[in-house]
Amino acid sequence: MESQCPLTSSSSTSIRILSTESSWSAIIARRIVTTMQRPFFHTVSIALLMLCSALALPAQKSQAPLRVSEGVENALLLTKVMPAYPFSAKRKGVTGLVQLNVRIDEQGSVERITILNSPDIDLSDAAITAVLQWKYKPFLLNGEPTAVDTTVTINFSPVR
Q1: What is the model's pLDDT at position 19?
Q2: H-type alpha helices, 15-118
Q3: Which long-range contacts does 44-51 make (Cβ < 8 Å, 24+ apart)?
Q4: What is the 3-state secondary structure (H, E, C) of 77-94?
Q5: Partners of residue 103 on adjacent β-strands
Q6: For residue 109, how far is the Cα from the chain centroid?
Q7: Which domains does the chain have, with CATH numbers?
Q8: Rounded Cα gap, residues 51 and 145, in angstroms
Q9: What distance in Å separates the CA atoms of residue 77 and residue 68, rounded to the nearest whole number?
Q10: CA-based nearest residue to 154, from 82, 105, 88, 71
Q11: What pLDDT digit, counting tens, does each position of 56-99 carry?
Q12: Can you tell me the distance from the alpha carbon of 103 to that of 111, in angstroms, rounded to the nearest whole number?
């Protein structure tokens, strides 16, 4: 069985693929060698090699975690440890919101935390210490657990 790479149109640059005997990448690589003397065709051949190789790859599971809203993840929160208000922040009179970007893995555990916004490093440390102990119900995508990124906001205000 013979087919044409869908990215070629003219007969002078067509690339023929034999079903299981060769991959598109190997055929295109041979084509690059034969067109090395012509710079324009060399550039076009390299571009075709990259594009046809990408088309020939089997579909892979996306590695990038999904981004979900804070409200969605709050609904899946199973265990929430409240942060302790740091004494040093109380003494300085520091209050405010700490915003964190949180990566939750496929099992529902907090995997990574990045500080997005914080009025004080002591508040950030307290928030991170607490959020690392949180446990979520795994987020499902098409029935499969998947890692997600979300934002967590913690409000530090003194209790009177």
Answers
A1: 38
A2: 24-34, 39-56, 70-75, 87-92
A3: 44/13, 48/5, 48/7, 48/8, 48/13, 48/15, 49/25, 51/7
A4: EEECCCCCCCHHHHHHCC
A5: 112, 149
A6: 17
A7: 2-56 (no CATH), 66-156 (3.30.2420.10)
A8: 31
A9: 13
A10: 82
A11: 554 445 567 888 877 777 888 999 999 999 999 999 999 999 99
A12: 5
Which pair of tokens denotes residue 157?
């205000």
Residue 28 banded pLDDT, cuts 50, 70, 90: low
pLDDT of residue 12 exceeding 50, the answer is: no
Query: Per residue in 51-67, pLDDT tens?
Result: 555 555 544 455 678 88
* CA dist., res. 134 & res. 80, Å (int): 5
Name residue 112's beta-bridge partners. Answer: 103
- Per-residue pLDDT, averaged over 155-160, amounts to 80
**Alpha carbon 138 to chain centroid distance?**
17
Given a contact cutoff of 8 angstroms between Cβ atoms, the answer to whether 101 and 116 are in contact is yes
